[in-house]
Write a structure and sequence with these properties.
Chain A: This is Nucleotide-diphospho-sugar transferase. The complex is a heterodimer of chains A (about 700) and B (about 375). By secondary structure, chain A is an alpha/beta fold. In chain A, strands 5-4-1-6-12-8-13-10-9-11 form a ten-stranded mixed β-sheet, with helices on both faces. Chain A has a nine-stranded mixed β-sheet with strand order 15-16-19-22-25-28-31-34-35. Chain B has helices at about 10-25, 35-50, 55-75, 80-105, 110-120, 125, 135, 150-170, 175, 190-200, 220-230, 245, 270-280, 320-325, 355-365; strands at about 180-185, 205-210, 235-240, 250-255, 260, 265-270, 285-290, 335, 345, 350. In chain B, helix 8 crosses helix 10. Classes of the chains: A alpha/beta (about 700), B alpha/beta (about 375).
Chain lengths: ~700, ~375
């Protein structure tokens, strides 16, 4: 690395002085000029089909292009030279910048665009920059889609101090604290940071793959020798704002297989013993920092901007010269020159651009409406993002969807949450656009036919399918899938809560094997999926045993092995076995092969003994009974299956009388309507049980 | 209007400077009425020295246009508009003065008629007699003076006034605060109040209760209290909730303010309205310390449009994901305090009743400049 680095360092490029700069900054930053590299391309396809026509950084967020927010942040951070790396749609970005106020002499920094048309990843762009020798000193590396109001002087001072002490501290990552299921965190991308508590040195980085089972991260034992206090955290919004030294692009050049700045670069540098470079984190607890990296975060960041978490970067500070937003109570932002009918209702958290007309009876809630839109009568718009020049005819319903420039939504049509209607698509009357549809009119490769099913008889546009997905490696695909999926906020939130409660109540039922210090439900989430997979496999194994009529011992052995391999708890083993056996019983009952009682007896007499190796003490029995009861709620004739199963297992001495009575008094056995309903036959049996007991006693 | 040629680079320079200033205002890099007022005055000084006009009305329109832009950048910061109106009033006054002196001095041929002419004639025709043009023909006549140095001098005086404003207010403290009195102040971000108390402490011994204005000014409260304590004043920081219970023991409430409106009402940090109401209930006098630059000719017809809404994150921690999603938080930075709640306004011109504020507005601003 020596010669390369030396070459970089000596190439002291004479950077041109900005023609104008505000005087205060000029004086203080004379010798500490700060460069910023803005990566305008995301090298991702999550915003397609919108990004087929416009680069992501020029998509409007609250009626202002995303790039503006990035530049605003850079201006706030006191950057004096900005280099924008363009790849896809470079012409559009260059034109936008040329006509923006950032090219004026009043701009606080000089701006320059660099083309890097061949690059397909962050790594390529960095290598390109290195080759061009544009970087002269420590620089700020950001993507063109961040929204941030963190005062940067402290971060920068801390970084410079570290650099002065230790030349090997090559990078500082800016991380914002946020709870694990925060809306502004990209759900598809989260990561574990292992930090030294005192110095905030990042000693390990691991990406969490949501769809894959990740049970453990491996840490080099050396780490524990070097650092006394380690924090393992995953409660960060990582918006990829990094202060890098010129070594960083050089390292990218050296390691030509590095593509991703976090997954490859940070992980690679930290796991490599040879380089001896260190990376630090700067944790931000006040202020706001986020990145629009998926449709889900687009939604979240829009909401954050509207509800003024990003103050002073809000719509009413009118970032662009021609904007005239004014703030009204309830986070409503209206530009001048909008026409609102007397009977229309504008509810809170709404942004409406100039030249828009809203007709009678229309209700708009929590939405962003662009400029020059025509909105008809009795339209309902909830949580939607409607860009410029959109026409929405009477009685249409639009929920949490993105409607891009120039689109037309026909009368009485409905756009379901999560849908994307791209540029100039026309949707006919009475059409329902499903939540998972992405409609476009872009005819890039191969002329596509108008899809009449999707847009109606007189509509225009077709359903966009992401062909590139198949070619990508699988975790890429995972991200693409989940980003589309998670945009559907409503259903996602529901699944989130059930998710976390599930893990929470399993938490108290069984001891956790391994606890990560700041374990939050994301790590649990990955374990959960692990448990899920165990449940599936175990259940399949028992079902197979029944179907192929295996020996009981073999089935038990199989379960045991599986349990060991997955490090699962007996609770899960029981759950799986019960699911399989009750499933079998209910199959027999439903197909009318046997009556409930006979079915239960035939199955349990043969397979019941399995439970002998799973149920040990009274607590286990209660847990077992609860599981059976819960399982029966899902079955036809669940109540009678439950009754006979208890009876049968009682006869087999698997269940003891005390356990059954305790179970019945346990509030969990009656915690909801289903549980109570399925247990309706139990009291009679219990009565019989107690009387039988008394009789035997009296004898 | 622009003479072009040699001056274009300077013009460009100035334009860039204005744009940068607007951007800084938008980014809230310049904040607080004092800082904004001072920066605006300094900018106007530059604009006026660079400006070239043939008639004074051209300068007025030029500054009005600039004023509109600056106002737009931080519409809820009234100090910026106030300074612009002050400068406009100054320009008008200077030009009228020259009119008067001109008519009074040499002009035998009925000055009344010239002024009648000036009503009907357009600016350009009228122009050559005035302003910088007068240098050419005014070789012998000292009456047709160039207004520019006078205006610049006026703005310079305004800047000096701004810089010394706290001093003149502070000197009135001795008359306001008695020995061993208990003072309550809910506006710890006010420099004026700080200096007022510090100066008075040299002559009097008194106790100050500083209200911790959650959430926007908590840190400033602590700094403020520390400074007072270091000056040997007995200082206590109390929470906002304690105000009512402690009001009975308070001798005076001293408010700093963000702006004073034409009716004598105030825009002060959020919480001030509640505290002044509370003081009214206890018949505790409420005294406001304010520089005249905060006095705005605006009338609070729509109070909401005057109140800036700040960073939501100060009220609710952003990291609390489950709440962020479900709660709508509003963090107003200011409160409107009605004039009835205020007993006395101490300005650098002396103490006035809030009902007299309209008079000060008339003295300092021109009616025609109220809407920029």
């Amino acid at each position: 690395m020596g010669p390369k680095k030396g070459g970089q360092g000596n190439k002291a490029k004479v950077s041109k002085q900005p023609s104008q700069q505000n005087t205060t900054q000029d004086e203080t930053n004379q010798d500490e000029r700060l460069q910023a590299i803005v990566l305008s391309d995301s090298y991702q396809t999550r915003f397609q089909p919108l990004t087929l026509e416009t680069p992501r950084c020029l998509l409007p967020l609250c009626n202002t292009a995303l790039l503006e927010y990035t530049f605003e942040f850079l201006a706030l951070a006191g950057v004096s030279e900005v280099i924008v790396v363009c790849c896809a749609h470079a012409d559009q970005i260059q034109e936008y910048i040329a006509h923006s106020r950032w090219s004026n002499p009043s701009s606080p920094f000089t701006i320059e665009t660099v083309l890097s048309p061949e690059s397909v990843s962050v790594g390529d762009a960095m290598r390109d920059l290195d080759a061009k020798g544009l970087i002269t000193s420590d620089f700020l590396l950001v993507s063109g889609d961040i929204v941030c109001n963190v005062p940067f002087d402290k971060v920068l001072a801390a970084h410079r101090e570290r650099r002065a002490k230790d030349k090997n501290a090559i990078m500082t990552m800016v991380l914002r604290e946020a709870s694990p299921l925060h809306r502004t965190r990209a759900r598809a991308e989260s990561a574990i940071f292992v930090l030294d508590e005192q110095t905030n040195q990042c000693v390990h980085y691991e990406e969490i793959k949501t769809r894959k089972h990740m049970q453990q991260i491996s840490l080099d034992p050396e780490i524990f020798n070097k650092h006394t206090d380690l924090a393992i955290r995953n409660d960060f919004i990582d918006c990829h704002i990094d202060i890098c030294s010129p070594d960083v692009p050089a390292l990218f050049t050296e390691n030509f297989d590095y593509n991703h700045i976090r997954k490859d670069f940070v992980h690679g540098i930290l796991t490599s013993d040879l380089l001896g470079k260190t990376i630090f984190a700067h944790i931000v607890t006040d202020n706001y920092a986020a990145r629009v990296r998926s449709l889900q975060t687009y939604d979240a960041v829009s909401k954050d901007v509207i509800s003024r978490w990003t103050y002073p970067i809000t719509p009413d500070s009118n970032l662009l010269a021609d904007q005239t937003f004014q703030y009204q109570r309830g986070h409503i932002y209206k530009e001048e020159d909008i026409v609102l009918a007397r009977s229309c209702r504008i509810n809170s958290c709404t942004v409406i651009g100039a030249g828009t007309a809203v007709d009678d009876g229309t209700v708009i809630t929590g939405s962003v409406i662009g400029r020059r839109c025509k909105i008809g009568k009795n339209v309902s718009i909830t949580g939607a993002y409607i860009w410029d020049d959109v026409t929405i005819e009477d009685d249409a319903i639009i929920e949490s969807a993105i409607i891009a420039n120039g689109a037309v939504i026909g009368a009485s049509s409905r756009v379901a949450p999560g849908a994307i209607v791209s540029y100039n698509v026309k949707i006919d009357r009475n059409v329902v656009v499903d939540g998972n549809k992405r409609l476009t009119r872009y005819l890039g490769d191969g002329l596509k036919k108008v899809d009449k099913d999707a847009v109606g008889e007189h509509g225009d546009g077709y359903v966009y399918e992401d062909d590139s997905e198949a070619e990508e490696d699988d975790d890429y695909e995972e991200i693409v899938n989940s980003s589309g999926l998670v945009y559907n906020m409503a259903s996602l939130n529901a699944s989130d809560t059930s998710f976390s409660t599930a893990s929470a109540d399993q938490m108290h039922r069984k001891p956790r094997r391994r606890r990560v210090s700041t374990a939050s439900s994301n790590t649990m989430a990955s374990e959960d999926s692990d448990e899920d997979s165990f449940l599936r496999e175990a259940q399949a194994s028992v079902e197979r045993a029944i179907a192929e009529n295996h020996d009981l011992d073999i089935a038990a052995l199989e379960l045991g092995t599986l349990r060991m391999a997955k490090n699962a708890h007996f609770h899960d083993v029981r759950a799986a076995t019960i699911a399989a056996l009750i499933g079998r019983i209910s199959h027999l009952v439903n197909s009318n092969t046997l009556k409930a009682r006979a079915a239960v007896e035939s199955v349990l007499n043969q397979w019941g003994p399995l439970f002998r190796r799973q149920v040990f003490d009274q607590a286990d029995q209660i847990d077992f009974l609860l599981l059976v009861q819960r399982d029966c709620t899902r079955r036809m004739q669940g109540s009678s299956i439950l009754l006979h199963a208890i009876n049968c297992l009682y006869d087999q001495d698997i269940l003891e009388e005390d356990a059954i009575l305790t179970w019945w008094q346990d509030p969990q056995s009656k915690e909801d309507a289903d549980m109570v309903k399925v247990g309706e036959l139990v009291p009679r049996w219990l009565e019989w049980l107690t009387t039988a007991e008394e009789e035997s006693d009296s004898e | 209007m622009l003479a072009a040629g040699a001056h274009t680079t300077k013009e460009k320079d100035l334009n860039a400077h204005i744009e940068a200033f607007v951007a800084q205002l938008k980014r809230r890099q310049i904040q607080g009425s004092y800082n904004v007022a001072l920066a605006t005055a300094q900018l106007l000084l530059r604009v006026v020295s660079a400006a070239r006009w043939t008639h004074i009305d051209q300068l007025v329109t030029q500054i009005k246009i600039l004023g509109k832009r600056l106002q737009g950048a931080q519409p809820r910061e009234l100090a910026c508009g106030n300074i612009i109106r002050r400068v406009l009033a100054l320009i008008r006054e200077e030009s009228e003065d020259t009119n008067d002196s001109e008519s009074g001095d040499g002009a035998v041929n009925s000055p009344l008629i010239t002024s009648m002419f000036s009503l009907l004639s357009t600016n350009d025709e009228y122009g050559p007699n005035r302003g910088s043009q007068s240098l050419i023909d005014g070789s012998g006549r000292s009456i047709k003076k160039d207004l520019k140095p006078y205006i610049i001098e006026g703005i310079q005086e305004l800047i000096d006034e701004l810089k010394n404003i706290d001093e003149s207010i502070a000197s009135m403290g001795v008359e306001m605060i008695h020995e061993n009195e208990t003072i309550l102040t809910p506006t710890p971000n006010s420099r004026t109040v700080l200096k007022f108390l510090l100066r008075t402490a040299q002559k009097r011994k008194f106790t100050v209760l500083v209200v911790e204005v959650f959430p926007n000014d908590v840190e400033k409260t602590h700094e403020f209290a520390l400074k007072l304590a270091e000056a040997g004043i007995e200082t206590t920081v109390i929470t906002d909730a304690m105000v009512y219970s402690i009001m009975g023991r308070v001798g005076k409430v001293i408010l700093g303010t963000h702006a004073v409106l034409a009716n004598g009402g105030l825009l002060a940090s959020a919480g001030a309205a509640m505290i002044s109401q509370c003081a009214n209930v206890h018949r505790t006098p409420v005294v406001v310390c304010t520089g005249l630059y905060k006095l705005s000719p605006m009338y609070p017809f729509d109070v909401e449009s005057l109140i800036e809404v700040g960073d939501t994150g100060k009220v609710l921690a952003f990291e609390d994901g489950s709440l962020v999603d479900k709660v709508n938080v509003v963090n107003p930075l200011y409160d409107y305090v009605p004039p009835e709640s205020v007993d006395l306004c101490i300005t650098n011109m002396g103490g006035y009743s809030p009902s007299f504020m309209y008079r000060l507005v008339l003295d300092h601003y021109r009616q025609e400049d109220v809407t920029l």
